[in-house]
Amino acid sequence: MAEPFLLGVLGGMGPLAAVDFQHQLLRAVNSASDQQQIPMVVWNVPQIPDRQKALAGQGPSPLPQLIDGIARLNRVGASHIVIACNTAHHWFEALQAASRAPLLHIADAAAEAAAALAPASVGLIATQGTLDAGWFQRRFAQRGIETLLPTAAEIVDYFVPGCYAVKRGDIAAGGALLARQAQGLLDRGAERLVLACTEVPLALRAISWQPPNAAIDPAEAMAAVCARLWQQQQSAI
Known about the structure:
Helix content: 40-55%
Number of strands: 7
Oligomer: single chain
Shape: globular
Structural class: alpha/beta
Strand order of the largest sheet: 2-1-3-4
């Protein structure tokens, strides 16, 4: 008999992003009743050290706290685990090695969503650590999709202050800055945007900013993958 489905969500990075991901899961299942929704357990503890600062050599590694969260999700019986933060996937391999339950990679979900839309190019909005890691670029290239990246000036002037504005609760101010980052990528020819930082979709929605073509939200794509896994197990019972 298959192991009971229980989704583990490693959140807290930031806490609002983890809450938004839970909403994405509810929407992805689109159930007719409470009982048809995904059973999940969420570790939403925001005291995890800052991922951007850690990767820039300006703060402690979040890995010990991330492993602790993974261990707790395993102890309560998670059958699958997702990380509700793009940048935290920098430690994906170490976290998978520490976990009994398989981890699902957010870049795999985003690449699947992008392939379904088949754009010639995408503009990637993400932290410097995520851009440097190249997970998204490699997966898009495998599908024949060109990735356009922010400029160094855009990262400093728009992305970083926009991201931290969201984290301190000034979501509209963050949205205004991140919209300028997004527009820069569109102006350079991006056919679609990939919002590969969990604060970005929240901020852009807060100011009702939308690109001409629908953006790819990796968290939404991950929610769709989780919903499919859950529904496949249910149909097999």
